[in-house]
Amino acid sequence: MRVLVIGSGAREHALLLALSRDPQVTGLSVAPGNAGTARLAEQHDVDITSGEAVIALARKVEADLVVIGPEVPLVLGVADAVRAAGITCFGPSKGAALIEGSKAFAKDVMAAAGVRTASSEIVDNPAHLDAALGRFGPPAGDPAWVVKDDSLAAGKGVVVTADREVARAHAAGLLEAGHPALLEAFLDGPEVSLFCVVDGATVVPLLPAQDFKRVGDGDTGPNTGGMGAYAPLPWLPDTVYREIVEQIVEPVAAEMVRRGSPFSGLLYAGLAITPAGPAVVEFNCRFGDPETQAVLALLESPLGQLLYAAGNGKLAEFGELRWHEGAAVTVVLAAENYPGRPRVGDVVTGSEAEGILHAGTTRRDDGAVVSSGGRVLSVVGTGTDLSAARANAYHIMESVRLPGSHFRTDIGQRAAEGKISV
Ligand code: GLY
């Protein structure tokens, strides 16, 4: 089986690495890829938001399966185009990708499926903003306001703040840019990312993971696309894991079938485990980054065969997934000033070691690896338990050098110390 992966982040590097371990995968291509993925796959620079360009590439490399990593091509309908060309695709249709592309749509699906989520209100008129702010945050008894961009924002459209002026300014900025703002009640509790391979009504859950969205240790500073992750979650009872699958993901998948937009691809449930039980923070229509880097490090089942089965509506025949024992931790190395405008073009050294996945990197003509984005590398450590995996990840990180870069030092620490309970 020849597989074409679309995307350029550490998530796509992790997908390619896991695909390369599948004995039935005979060839790998990636578009556009990065300096690290070039070691595993043929690189092709095409416009990944164009269905025509992706189809032409898939034909050129004789791909049997196209795996679309990022949300933007999915929301634009690239998976529909690939499937219409007769090529198996792992990734939801444009209609199903709306579960990430519009938070209002996702809330509607959840309400119809009877799934617990934060109460919310869409504000699309600046004249209604102040009254709406009064119905959320401290006036409503919540510790903070949660203000989100209704549409795609690469993880950076969310502001959680106890300062009304900060909440107001973020919402007003969104409205000024022509984006409706979603105000949401604050969900209190440890967060879980659960990725499920879905084809219509069949749901195959992967290991649960947790990511770290704030830039600084102790969950301080602004939100990012994700600074680290670990899997599995030693503090998450199996009963709660099953409740998420059976009472949240399966009903949502069934509701999408009922609406005539069956979801086929990776359905990512982002949840908070509140005192009342698991509640959905968001759904995404693709693998999460950086959780994928940790989750796939532990996958023993053949990834290519799994995604091919889902893409062909045969997931129910695939059987139970197999996992390696132990834990995995991902730590993201970010460029100076990230999540603001990152400094790019610096030489990265020590990035070729095992356990290092590339994201914002390119190879210069002289062969040097240079930074080209905010999140530059993901370092993945595995071990017999979370403490061992953490130690391994941070040991690998010691060998990497990038001027001005930063990373969090506390990924998975509270869980490893037994400080998270539900
Ligand atoms: N882990 C956050 C995201 O992928 O959106």
From TrEMBL:
InterPro entries: ATP-grasp, ATP_grasp_subdomain_1, PreATP-grasp_dom_sf, PRibGlycinamid_synth_ATP-grasp, PRibGlycinamide_synth, PRibGlycinamide_synth_C-dom, PRibGlycinamide_synth_C_sf, PRibGlycinamide_synth_CS. Keywords: ATP-binding, Ligase, Nucleotide-binding, Purine biosynthesis. Pathway: Purine metabolism; IMP biosynthesis via de novo pathway; N(1)-(5-phospho-D-ribosyl)glycinamide from 5-phospho-alpha-D-ribose 1-diphosphate: step 2/2. Its cofactor is Mn(2+); Mg(2+). Signal peptide: none annotated. Residues 107-312 form the ATP-grasp domain. It catalyses: 5-phospho-beta-D-ribosylamine + glycine + ATP = N(1)-(5-phospho-beta-D-ribosyl)glycinamide + ADP + phosphate + H(+). One of its GO terms (biological process) is 'de novo' IMP biosynthetic process. It is an enzyme of class 6 (ligase). SMART domains: GARS_A, GARS_C. One of its GO terms (molecular function) is phosphoribosylamine-glycine ligase activity. Coiled coil: none annotated. Its EC number is 6.3.4.13. Belongs to the GARS family. HAMAP family: GARS (MF_00138). This is Phosphoribosylamine--glycine ligase.
